[in-house]
């Protein structure tokens, strides 16, 4: 299947849905900020945007925690869903859809997805006896374990499952998936992740379990026509990407935003621990239900602090709300977007963040804006006469090279600051008013275009700069730390 390039005026992007068993962490904050910038950028091109996020609320992890806290699972997930939705304000996110997998419509959609795949012959029942990591939501063979524990979740005991389960015939989709990757070399970005998933599929796919006995794990969506089983993770969790736009009833919205088999339209973003789930398992499920695949899956890396994995026991956790407290909303957005290349593991520390914040934002953009506004106080120049140029279709934006784009904007900031050093407008104003005004108008156009380019990245800052240029009132964008 080769995707046809079309000029679709509808744009769709989704994050993964985090489990609601812990407060939102910085890795997810980073993922959703990337998605937000892309969504704002596509809106600036005049597209109708669906930007989906939400919370994954079923499963044994949540059931266990709710039981430990002596809470009804629904009340427990209600409280967490609010915490995740608060990210919208905290990080100034522009998502349009917030789906909860406990929504009634979503549950019905998951059941319909199951029915269609079942009807096509890709669901069967068999005896299941396995070690299972609830942290990963994956089976573990002994060779994958370290001292009997999952290397990613050394504090979690493995579940020993021994029961009859429903299975999805993943193994039937190897060739289709390889075909999908081969014909669409940018299906997974970055390329090294495409190579990784291709190697995984080439190795041969194992069918995976998609249900649990209800008596052991009651917190889930009932399997259609079988009272003894509930869905386990996949049909429930992954179907949100289509149920959020009204699938299966709203076929028009589905075709517009999710796309068609010839011209898929859905962009997904996920962390590297979700590579297999998003770029292979979910794609196979779509194929099994005769639905179009995603258009593209962006796989982000992990964030470490001072070279170490973030963990409560080390005490090096940096949370999104702590960052916002220290750097403001746009400061946090900027720092999470510039911490390194998309798709690679990025290392941060308070020290590095402070330095970058001071250099680029306080001394760079903030200082430039303050100087221009102050020096142009008495200049007769109407900034609203300038036209907001259209941001061009930009391959860097489309490939999530947002740090590269921001670095190019920062280069303009440095050049404009240097222009001020070199021309010394405060002296010109006393010696040659004509040249002074000419230089200042150039600088105002510079900062105007910088503000415009920054809009998808730092929306509030853009507004503040434009207002300051119009009113010539002093403004402190980013206080020094
Ligand atoms: Zn694990």
Short overview:
The chain is 47% helix and 15% strand. The chain is an alpha/beta fold and 481 residues long. The radius of gyration is 25 Å and the shape is elongated.
The total of helices stands at 18
Q: What distance separates the N and C termini?
A: 53 Å
Task: Note the main sheet.
Answer: 6 strands, parallel
Structural class: alpha/beta
Keywords:
alpha/beta; binds zinc ion; elongated; 6-stranded parallel beta sheet; 481 residues
Would you give an account of this structure?
The chain is an alpha/beta fold. It has 18 helices and 15 strands. The strands form four sheets. Strands 3-2-1-11-12-7 form a six-stranded parallel beta sheet, sandwiched between helices. Helix 7 (191-202) packs across helix 11 (275-288), helix 15 packs antiparallel against helix 17 (433-454) and helix 17 packs antiparallel against helix 18 (459-471). The relative contact order is 0.12. Bound molecules: zinc ion (ZN).
Spell out the blueprint of helices and strands.
Elements: E1 10-14, H1 26-44, E2 48-55, H2 60-68, H3 73-85, H4 87-90, E3 97-100, H5 104-119, E4 123-133, E5 138-140, E6 159-168, H6 174-183, E7 188-189, H7 191-202, E8 208-209, E9 211-213, E10 229-231, H8 234-238, H9 240-243, H10 251-258, E11 266-271, H11 275-288, E12 296-300, E13 303-305, E14 308-309, H12 320-337, E15 346-348, H13 350-375, H14 395-398, H15 402-423, H16 425-431, H17 433-454, H18 459-471
Parallel strand pairs: 1-2, 1-11, 2-3, 7-12, 11-12, 13-15
Antiparallel strand pairs: 4-5, 4-6, 6-8, 9-10, 13-14
Helix pairs in contact: 1-12, 6-7, 7-11, 12-13, 13-15, 13-17, 15-17, 16-17, 17-18
Zinc ion is lined by residues 133, 135-136, 150, 152-153.
């Amino acid at each position: 299947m080769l995707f046809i390039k079309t000029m679709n005026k509808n744009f769709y992007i989704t994050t993964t849905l985090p489990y609601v068993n812990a407060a939102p962490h910085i890795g997810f904050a980073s993922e959703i900020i990337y998605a937000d910038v892309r969504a704002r950028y596509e809106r600036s091109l005049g597209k109708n945007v669906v930007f989906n996020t939400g919370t994954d609320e079923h499963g044994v992890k949540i059931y266990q925690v709710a039981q430990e806290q002596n809470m009804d699972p629904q009340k427990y997930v209600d409280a967490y869903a609010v915490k995740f939705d608060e990210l919208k304000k905290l990080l100034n996110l522009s998502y349009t859809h917030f789906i909860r997998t406990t929504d009634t419509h979503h549950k019905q959609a998951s059941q319909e997805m199951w029915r269609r795949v079942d009807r096509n012959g890709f669901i069967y029942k068999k005896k299941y006896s396995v070690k299972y990591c609830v942290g990963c939501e994956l089976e573990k063979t002994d060779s994958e374990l370290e001292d009997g524990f999952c290397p990613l979740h050394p504090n979690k005991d493995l579940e020993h499952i021994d029961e009859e389960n429903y299975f999805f015939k993943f193994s039937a989709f190897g060739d289709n998936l390889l075909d999908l990757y081969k014909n669409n070399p940018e299906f997974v970005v970055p390329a090294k992740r495409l190579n990784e998933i291709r190697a995984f599929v080439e190795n041969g796919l194992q069918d995976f379990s998609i249900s649990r006995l209800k008596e052991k794990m009651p917190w889930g969506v009932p399997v259609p026509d079988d009272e003894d089983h509930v869905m386990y993770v996949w049909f429930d969790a992954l179907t949100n990407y289509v149920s959020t736009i009204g699938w299966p009833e709203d076929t028009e919205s589905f075709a517009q935003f999710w796309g068609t088999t010839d011209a898929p339209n859905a962009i997904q973003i996920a962390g590297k621990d979700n590579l297999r789930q998003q770029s292979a398992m979910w794609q196979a499920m779509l194929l099994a239900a005769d639905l179009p695949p995603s258009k593209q899956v962006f796989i982000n890396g992990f964030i470490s602090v001072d070279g170490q994995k973030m963990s409560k026991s080390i005490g090096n956790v940096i949370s999104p709300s702590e960052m916002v407290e220290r750097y403001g909303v746009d400061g946090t957005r900027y720092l999470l977007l510039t911490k390194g290349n998309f798709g690679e593991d990025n290392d941060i520390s308070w020290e590095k963040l402070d330095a970058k914040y001071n250099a680029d934002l306080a001394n760079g953009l903030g200082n430039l804006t303050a100087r221009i506004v102050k020096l142009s106080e008495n200049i007769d120049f109407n900034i609203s006469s300038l036209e907001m140029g259209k941001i061009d279709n930009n391959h860097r934006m489309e490939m999530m090279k947002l740090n590269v784009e921001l670095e190019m904007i920062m280069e303009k900031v440095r050049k404009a600051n240097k222009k001020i050093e070199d021309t010394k407008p405060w002296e010109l104003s006393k010696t040659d008013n004509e040249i002074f005004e000419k230089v200042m108008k150039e600088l105002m156009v510079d900062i105007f275009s910088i503000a415009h380019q920054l809009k998808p990245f730092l929306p509030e800052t853009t507004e503040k700069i434009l207002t300051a240029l119009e009113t010539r009132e002093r403004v402190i964008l980013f206080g020094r730390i």
